[in-house]
UniProtKB/TrEMBL annotation:
Cofactor: [2Fe-2S] cluster
Keywords for this protein: 2Fe-2S, Iron, Iron-sulfur, Metal-binding, Nitrate assimilation, Oxidoreductase
One term of GO molecular function: metal ion binding
Source organism per UniProt: Alexandrium monilatum
Compositionally biased residues, Low complexity: 25-37
Domain spans labelled Rieske: 120-223
Coiled coil: none
Region (Disordered): 1-37, 75-113
Protein name in UniProt: Rieske domain-containing protein
Amino acid sequence: SRALPQLLPRRRSKGPMSSALGGTAWQPQAAAAAEAPPVWDEASGRFWCRTRVNAYELPDGCDWQRAFRDVLGAQGPPRAGRRLQAHASDAPAQIPPREGAGRRLARFPSDPDKRTARAAHTAALLQMPCHAGVQALVQGRALAFFRFGGRVFASEARCPHQGASLCEGEVGEIEDLVDGRRCYVTCPVHKMQFDLADGSVLEGSCPPLRTYGVRISEADEVRRVAMVEVGFEALASEYFVG
């Protein structure tokens, strides 16, 4: 990620969820990639591609996280599920693993309270006035864009676990004693959690998230414009054909 210019001020939210432009919540739409060709940069070792994603129009992750916690908290504490009394005869039989099993089953907690908490988390996501990120197609790749204050992150748009849309998941910041503040995104379906800076898995068991370098061009505070560029280490072979 790369910090936006210091010219980009933080605006206080005017309601439960305000956009970076102020006023009512901005409903993110899938943005189309710009037509300008990629530019190779020797210093960074990347092909930089323009997008039509304006960083000022990305929802602020910090504001979004606060609004999400308010929605989640309004649902009240999860109710304890009804439990059957355990007996020694109730021990489950050991089932041998099936040979040649396909992909792993999604992780569903066996504890009723955890299942209730997951359901409440999903319900709160559905009540949010806007998604946490914006999806855009860049050089044929579906990417997700997120912003925290003056920092912009880009990652693959789909969760590497089973392909859920990450823009529809939860974002936030956490304190890490070693790495300091870390920005994350959580899959809306199976709750896999990833560090947006490097794609490492913070919660769950799945492959890491693919992330991409970001830089800002055409920054103009007066017009509230800060266009996002994405850096790829390689381009699809189809790009060089013809």
